[in-house]
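Quick entry between incubations.
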Amino acid sequence: MRLPESLLKSLEGVKGFDRVAFQAAHHAGEKLTSVRFNLTKKITDAENTLPVSMPVPWCDAGFYLQHRPSFTFDPLFHAGCYYVQEASSMFLEQALKQKTNLRQPLKVLDLSAAPGGKSTHLQSLISNESLLVSNEVIKNRCHILNDNIIKWGSANVVVTNNDPSAFKKLPAYFDVVVVDAPCSGSGLFRKDPEAINEWSTNNVALCSQRQQRILADVLPALKDGGLLIYATCSYSVEEDEAISDWLVKEFQLQNEPLQLKEQWGIVETSSPLTHSKGYRFFPHRVKGEGFFLACFTKTHTEDVTKTKPWKFEKATATEAGILNTWMYRTELEIIKEKDVFFALPHQLVADVMVLQATLNVQYKGVKLGEIMKGKLVPHHALALNLLLAPGILTTELSYHDAIKYLQRQEMNVQPVKAGWQAVSYQNQKLGWINALPNRINNYYPKELRILKQQNDSHFKKL
Ligand code: SAM
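Done. Structure below.
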C-alpha cells in the first residue's frame, strides 16, 4: 500500500501523526471488524453467536470481533440485533453523552445519514420521546437507510431525502445536528486501498469547500445553544481543524471540548486559528480507522420554526380496533395515508406533520400495513418493530429454515396454526409468513432477500 506522499507531507506537524508508525499501520494490513449491538433486541447468547473479542472502549454496546464472518448468513443480522460499524465512528456516543441531556426529549438531525451507522447509534442513545430525522441527499442511498432504520425497530425516526439547503426552512428547530460529512476518505485507506488512487490534494480542497457549503446550509436549523457534531473520515487539516476554525470565525460557534481517557489513544488537537479542540483517530494509536470529530454550540438566535396547525387522517375506531390487536404500546397515534397505516409516538405527531410539510419524507414511525376485507395485511416493518404485540402468533425457525426464509425459498416448517404469523430465529423476528392449508407464503421483502451463495462456515455450524 503506497500512501500519497502529498498526504504524508501535509500531516507532518499534526499532533499524534508519526510517519513511520502511520505507514506501518497501513502496510500491516490488519483488518478490524466491530459491531454495535441493539440493546432493545438483546441476543441471548451473543458471545457464542458472534466471534466477539473485546469491547470498544468509548461505546457501551460496541465490540470488536476476532474475525469477519459473512454477516449475510446470520439471521440475527437481518433481525436488526446489531449493526456492523467501524469502531472509531462509535465515538459519536461520547459527544452525545457528554454534551447533551439524553433524558430530555431532543430533536436530532443526522444530515448525511446513509447507510445508517450513526443514525441507528443516535436512535439507541436518545429517549423514546425524542425525534431523530435521518436525512440522505442521494436518492438511491435512501433505500438502504430506510431498511436499516426499519431493522433497528424504533418508532421515533423520520427518514428524509433532502439537500442540506432544505433545512433552512426549519429555523432553530433541532437540539442536535450531526454532520458526518462527505470527505476525501483518507481515513478508510486500510479498508479500501482502491480509494488511494482517487485521492488528490485537489479533491481535498473540493471536499473542504463542499463541507463549508453543507454546514452553512444546515446551521440555521440548529437552536440557540444547540449542539453541532462535525465528523469526517479524512486526515486532512483542510477538512478537519480548518473547518473548526471556519465555524468559530464565520458563525461565532463555541467549541466544546470532550473528556478522553488516556488509554483510548485518541488525540486531542487544537485548530491553528481558534484553538478549537477536535479528536483524531490514527490507526497506529487506536483500534480503528481514521476519523475526526469536533463539537460546537450555537451562540446566536434565529427566528424559530412556527408549528402550523396540522391535519392528518386518523384511523377510525373499527380500524384502530383491528390494528390494536397487533400492537403492544397504546400511547401511539395511528395515521392513515392512502390506505396505509403508520404508528407514531403521540408526542411526535405535531413535529412529523411539520416535517411532512417541509421536507421530502421517505419513512416515519412504524409502517403497520393495509387493512383489506377487515383484516390487516401487516408490513415487514411491524414484524421487526418493538411495538409488535408479544402474543402475536410466531413460528420459531431453525438456522437452516431461517436462511431459506431470508432467501425467499421453501421452508420445511409446520406452523401450529394457519394464517398470518411472524417467523423468528432465536426469538428475534425476521418477518411474516401466511400459512395456507396447502402451502406457506413467504412475505420476506423481495428486495431484501439473500442472493449470495453460502460458503462461510461460521454461522452454518451454529
Ligand atoms: N453517517 C453515515 C453512517 O454513519 O452510516 C455515513 C455518511 S458518509 C460519511 C457521507 C454521506 O454524505 C453519504 O451518505 C453521502 O451520500 C452524503 N453526501 C454526499 N454529498 C452530500 C451533500 N452535498 N450534502 C449532504 N450529504 C452528502
